[in-house]
Write a structure and sequence with these properties.
The strands form 3 sheets. Strands 1, 2, 3, 4, 7, 8, 11, 12, 13, 14 and 15 form an 11-stranded mixed beta sheet that branches. A two-stranded antiparallel ribbon has the order 5-6. The chain is built from 16 helices and 15 strands. Strand 9 and strand 10 form a beta hairpin.
């Protein structure tokens, strides 16, 4: 579980110089066919099975004489495949890596994202009952990374990848993949929330302040139901100068900034600039549906969804999450490469594979094709740098704050959305709702 304190920070702009080269070897290799879950051994508990000891796992020849297979677990969205341009590009990059190595192949196993048989399900159960089914490396979200850390299966990666790979990452990306100050992942794709607005209705200026939201008349929507993540409300709190500290394993908010946020929501709700319907919206997809049908003129959306929908949009622009006097710093989320194997030979090769996939030309092409923002500045060279949105996205990442996860954070975000519902329903005043949430 992440034990960190989020503070409003401004990250200095960084410049990375990348010198890279690529091979023009012919595409005549083949990747080990993608395995299905049915083709992999099922983790079944038996009394005779024991976890492989560290000694056994590392007692291998320094120079293995046979072929080595690196196993990569991923989810369907990020799987190499002939069916999508993103899948074909990743497949070609893995093929190219195999041609640079002697007797090394990459086996890709597609797992479900959640539930029984998912990546986390196997990482939780397999170490004790079937350690041989564990992968060498795995692709996972920030939330998955923090959960897997509790299982004790992830290996620190900062000594496995090159220094150039680490230095190329945005500063917020490095923090995003650190748990208890240990680098457990290498981020490759980033995501953050921002506002999308109708330019035929909001014509004067970008709605980057709370007053501009009220002046616009809205409706401005973000999810605030019992099932909502609470990230949108947390961003408003941080925009008000709120901090989150930790005392006796409990996350503590500041009462004054929280009261200010709730007063803004109450005032905007009184004019319907923020309608009461937000208490029924579970997700960003819900509020986007309202925008698409014309019942909202401003909504929160994440960058990945905005990029995917942008080609079909008309009269739509973007801005940062609004704050009291200026825009908020965005909460950055993402996806990461993580290492599971304890075999030193496999660890070295996995590090080299991650370095390969993180080369600016490789990550840049893959991120642009997939519509996910890259985790390094150099990879943005593959994107149209004259695009206003791409410049905006880079600036937001540089200003970003890492999104934290864990049971305590989930509880905190639920309490924030509950405070919003209490104020909108009239059950509590902003001051009373804030006081109840802050010890």
């Amino acid at each position: 579980m992440r034990k960190s304190t989020i503070q409003s920070i401004v990250l200095a702009f960084a410049v990375w110089l990348f010198t890279s080269c690529s091979s023009n070897t012919p595409d005549d290799g083949t990747i080990t066919p993608i395995a299905t879950e049915e083709s992999k051994p099922t983790a079944q508990a038996t009394e005779s099975q024991e976890p492989v000891s560290t000694l056994e796992a590392t007692s291998i020849p320094l120079f293995p004489t046979g072929p080595i297979t690196l196993t990569l677990w991923t989810i369907e969205e990020f799987a190499p495949s002939d069916e999508t341009s993103m899948g074909r590009l990743l497949q070609n990059q893995l093929l190219s890596f195999q041609r640079t190595q002697h007797d090394v192949s990459v086996e890709v196993v597609v797992k479900s994202a959640m539930g029984s048989g998912s990546v986390l399900d196997y990482l939780r159960t397999a170490p004790k009952v079937a350690p041989d089914v564990l992968p060498d490396m795995v692709l996972m979200s920030t939330e998955m990374l923090n959960t897997a850390d509790d299982y004790g299966v992830l290996q620190p990666v900062d000594q496995l990848v090159s220094q150039s790979t680490l230095e190329a990452l945005f500063p917020v990306a490095v923090k995003l993949a650190s748990v208890d100050d240990v680098q457990l992942g290498i981020p490759f794709k980033l995501n953050f929330e921002h506002v999308a607005f109708n330019t035929s209705i909001i014509t004067d200026t970008r709605p980057t302040t709370w007053q501009s939201i009220i002046d616009s008349g809205g409706p401005y929507l973000f999810p605030a139901s019992e099932n909502a993540s609470g990230t949108s409300v947390l961003a408003l709190y941080l925009a008000a100068g709120g901090t989150i500290s930790e005392k006796d394993s409990e996350l503590i908010l500041d009462v004054d900034p929280l009261t200010e946020v709730l007063r803004f929501i109450q005032r905007a709700n009184s004019t319907q600039a923020i309608p009461s319907t937000i208490v029924d919206d579970d997700s960003l997809s819900d509020v986007w549906d309202s925008y698409r049908t014309g019942t909202a003129s401003l909504v929160n959306i994440d960058s990945q969804a905005f990029i995917a929908r942008r080609p079909g949009l008309i009269n739509t622009s973007f801005s940062a999450i609004p704050g009291p006097s200026d825009a908020a710093f965005p909460l950055i989320d993402g996806w990461h490469w993580a290492v599971v194997t304890t075999n030193p030979i496999h660890q070295q090769l996995v590090g080299e594979l991650i370095d390969w996939l993180m080369l600016p030309e490789n990550l840049g092409a893959w991120s642009y094709t997939s519509g996910w923002l890259p985790a390094s500045m150099g990879a943005f060279a593959a994107w149209p740098i004259t695009d206003d949105y791409i410049r905006f996205a880079r600036e937001q990442i540089l200003l970003g704050i890492p999104h934290a996860y864990g049971a305590d954070w989930d509880s905190l975000e639920r309490e924030l959305t509950q405070a919003v519902r209490d104020v909108i329903s009239g059950n509590k005043s902003p001051a009373a709702a804030a006081a109840d949430l802050v010890p």
